[in-house]
Amino acid sequence: MPDTTHADTTADWQSWTDESMLRMVADAVPALLACYTLPELRCVFANTGYAAAHGFTVEGIIGRTAQDIVGDDAWADVQVNARRVASGERVQYTRRLSPPGRDSCMVEVTLTPHLRPGGQQVVLVLVNDITHHWLSEQAVLLSEERMRKFSLATEEAIVFHRDGRVVDMNDAVTRLMGYTLPEVQGRGILGFVSEEYRAQAEEYVLAGREHLYEATVLHKDGRRIPVEIVGKNMPEPGGDYRIAVLRDITARKQAQARLEFMSQHDTLTQLPNRRHLMAQLGKTLDTAQRRHARAAVLFLDLDHFKTVNDSLGHQAGDLLLCEMARRMLGTVRTSDLVARVGGDQFAVVLPDIHNRGDAATVADKLLADMRAVFHVDGTPLSLSPSIGISVFPEDGRGADELMRRADAAMHAAKNSGRGNRQFYAPGMEVRATEILQQERLLRDAIFAGAFELHYQPQVRVDDGSLVGFEALVRWKHPERGLVGPADFIGIAESRGLIAPIGRWVMHEACRQLKAWHDAGLHAVPVAVNLSALEFRQRDVAREIANVLLQTGLEPRFLEIEITESVLMQDADQARETLGALRALGVGISIDDFGTGYSSLAYLKRYPIDKLKIDRSFVMDTPGSDDDVAIVTAIVQLGRSLQLRTVAEGVETPEQLALLRQLGCDLAQGYGISRPMDGARARRWMQDLPA
Prior knowledge:
- By secondary structure, the protein is of the alpha+beta class.
- The chain contains 28 helices and 27 strands.
- The chain has 4 domains: 4-129, 2-Layer Sandwich (Beta-Lactamase); 135-253, Beta-Lactamase (2-Layer Sandwich); 265-426, Reverse transcriptase/Diguanylate cyclase domain (Alpha-Beta Plaits); 442-686, EAL domain (TIM Barrel), CATH 3.20.20.450.
- The termini are far apart.
């Protein structure tokens, strides 16, 4: 039961106001209302909402203390604010409220002190539900916190700006551009964009665009930094602002520039490549056309470059190419273009020349500078270029045409003895086209195996008995029929096709001879020619050993014919290779003896079995005293060195008689037998006396 003090207080209150009117108004407002006495903090009034929010009825809440109503957990906060209001201070605070049977909410509590008539102090309590606003504020705060943490954590530079002026930024901006926040705060954001991109950036910001674009920004030290930028509009109650996210794309730009350079330049020499050359040549010709000027194209090919690669290795070849590129750049003008077309071929574009003599002068300087000795690992090398020249406009008006004709002129220079220059002349392209056509047909022939071997007998001069065969390759040409080696070996060597042809000849000759031996025919050897290129480029001894193993032919039935030039070009390699062949048991002959270096020194130095007297010395005998003297000297030289001599090109009985008189050992030629295919050679042997 309420005590008498409680009853008196209630009576006094009811006399102070019109309770029915107050009740109606209080229950109608959405806020929670209550009134407590001070300092006791007993409730003397509450609207329905306030009572229900704390789990009471209006009648049940009257007279209870604030601690009873809010509960012990909330009392600590309420008590602090009650003391403040008791001192006459108006207090406003927020707290969480958990009404019975409902979700908790966030409320704003306003405590207003009031002095009632009679001098008693009371506190009016106004409670508003601010959950919705509180949640919105928390979302904003959370978003801002997330943005702050993200901007600190990311490596991308983030700038916050309003009305084009910087208001904030993260540390990544300092790392990117060198500025600190105090240095940029309040400054116009466009002032940090390079001038050439400023108009684009201004339009982007003013239009509120949000797509990605590229620009360059200015570092504090003045450097230009390529960046990728994206802007975003950020709505805010106090006015929209924008953020700009900048990503440093320096590495990407450098990679793109490197890729672009590589696509336009040769990776070894760093010279422009063919693609770049043709583009620049086109521009040069356009300019020359407008100015009625002249220009020239020089096409260069290094003579015998393949020999360097094959003998010293590709590393030496690469060093030589780089040195040649350096020399060419040092010879021409800075306005001239030097390019590597491919392999050991280069091109020079000469704009603004006065006449053909200017082009010739540059070509002569290149010939002189590029011939100078170059050392690779202590080995002196000296290569010369063959140079073809075409001139605009008389030799052509298009880039392709001028290049093609300079190329044709270069081939003419090679055919004229190499190491010289030639201007383009009408008809040169026809020859170059024919060579390309022959090369294509020869490649097809290698793929299809369109070759066959013919065999020419070698006989003893004294009694005419068979002592061996020389294997001679023939090409089954699709248009000309069978053609001899003189018509295609030169092309094969210059186009790098001699190796597959040589391998086929070696294997086929050994296979055929083994088949004849197995058939019981004459057990005589076969001689196979090796060109100087084959001898230098291939591991001849190893390949021959493999062929002998595969075919089963005994090594003593194989002879290798080489020219004197093989022995002169690389003495150490020649000695090593010939020694390995001799160890196999293979015979060695010097072909075309007398037409080259003919030195007693190398005849004593190398393991040689035979000297073959060139047909040019035999064909005019016995009518030519000079040729008779030469043949006599070679035969006597061979006898003194215990080498057998073989005369080539023997066609008449008189020549055979002379050779017999001089003591020549062996002979071959049309006077004995023409070269025969395998079937005819077999029948020829079968017809020989046993």
